[in-house]
Amino acid sequence: MPFTPFHLGPAFFLGELFEKRVNLISLLLGSIIIDVRAAYCLFSGCRPLHGPLHTFFSATLIACMLAWMVFSQRQWLQKITERLRIVQTYSFKSILMGALIGTWIHVLLDSFLYTDIIPFWPFRANPLLGMAGPGVIYLICLLTFLPATGIYFYRYSKRN
């Protein structure tokens, strides 16, 4: 994505759909954390831009680390989600599922667009490249953010 927050649309949508089974915080963080190295490379000039974090293998490792971090901070994170009227479970399973889905969605979406991504590493091919163009992927990201926002505000208004 040219703009990492685009990844929040599909993550937010899935988080709202599976509200009580998948931890939204870990899902949202997972959907953007993959671009940490890409952001560094964007400003420092290192190449390839996407590099080793944009593989399902690396995404899985990152998701496990992220899950541990979110789980260790679950008490204060739960206060935040309660204040936002988001019904969440902070079991390790729901946090890990959120982190895995978030990181994998990021790799999946970027795999359609960028030649420097090898999603199924150590296999060097990217069979997803070009199957959907940038316009389609960006539209999916935008169109999933809109109903997710609607679902959130509907639920927010119904909860005391």
Nutshell version of this structure?
By secondary structure, the chain is mainly alpha-helical. The chain has helices at 8-17, 24-33, 36-44, 56-72, 74-83, 92-111, 134-158.
Question: What are the salient characteristics of this protein?
Answer:
globular
Supply the helix-strand structural class. Answer: mainly alpha
Number of strands: 0
Q: Judging from the principal axes of the Cα atoms, what is the shape?
A: globular
Give helix % range: 55-70%
SS field, number of helical segments: 7
Give the number of domains: 1
Instruction: Give unreliable regions as ranges.
Output: none
What value does the average pLDDT take? 92
**Proportion in β-strands:** under 5%
What is Rg?
Answer: 16 Å
- State the end-to-end CA separation: 37 Å
Summarize the main sheet: none
Question: What is the string of SSEs from the N terminus onward?
Answer: HHHHHHH
Please tell me about this protein's structure.
The chain is an all-alpha fold and 160 residues long. The chain has one domain (4-158). It has helices at residues 8-17, 24-33, 36-44, 56-72, 74-83, 92-111, 134-158. Helix 1 packs antiparallel against helix 2 (24-33), helix 2 (24-33) runs parallel beside helix 6 (92-111) and helix 4 (56-72) runs antiparallel to helix 6. It is globular and about 50 Å long.
Please give the structural blueprint.
Blueprint: H1 8-17, H2 24-33, H3 36-44, H4 56-72, H5 74-83, H6 92-111, H7 134-158
Helix pairs in contact: 1-2, 1-7, 2-4, 2-6, 4-6
